[in-house]
Amino acid sequence: VICLGNLAQIDTPYLNPVSSGLTYLVERFKEFPHGGTIHLEGSPRSAISEYAEIHL
Fold it and tell me: What is the mean pLDDT of the chain?
């Protein structure tokens, strides 16, 4: 199972990076010996996705 997300794109007043489902999932699986997480800095996608992240 692969789960993707961007905590910078939370757009509801009821959630924040600490209370998001992605954070919940990472915390619950961090002791699982057959899993892992990867944190990417910046925007490893396209220029338009980086622009959208900043301006939307």
Answer: 88
Q: Cα separations (Å) of 3 from 26, 46, 50, 51, 56?
A: 9, 20, 20, 23, 22
2 DSSP 8-state letter: -
**φ, ψ for residue 29, nearest 5 deg:** -100, 0
Query: CA–CA distance from 46 to each of 2, 8, 26, 50 (Å)?
Result: 21, 16, 25, 6
Of the candidates 25, 28, 2, 6, which has an alpha carbon nearest to the alpha carbon of residue 17? 6
On whether the pTM is more than 0.90, the answer is: no
Cβ contacts of 12-17, under 8 Å, gap ≥ 24:
none
